[in-house]
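Give me the fold.
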Amino acid sequence: CGYDDKQALEIVARQLGMTVGKEERQIFAMVLSVGQGGHRLKEVKKRETPEWQWTYTDRGNRAYHGVTMDELAQFLEDLVGQPVVNKTGLAGSYWLELSDDAERAPQPGETKLLDKTALQIRWEHTKTEVLVVKDK
């Protein structure tokens, strides 16, 4: 079971006399957003499979195929082991290419551009929905 398997977490929490829910909280996280002037992403048709995929390009970059911005934020979060919140406001599925450097976490106070996408990521205090486990 993964940390995001809410049903499994609820079963375990119930056995321990706890509850699981989501609440909006202020956290310090990396925020994925669109830079000034708008994005330079290629929107693609919604994929037919539930899983998006990535491949390596001949330049050694990672190319994402049919990824939503929520999925990209989750992938970056898994990659760097720190919370990433999608604040792009973009719906739809996109094709994009990122270098290894773009996939590294920025330092606090730094705004990092994600290559030629015009997306950016930076640390900030932000409100977001988080999973909360509580005693009853």
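The helical segments are 6-15, 69-80.
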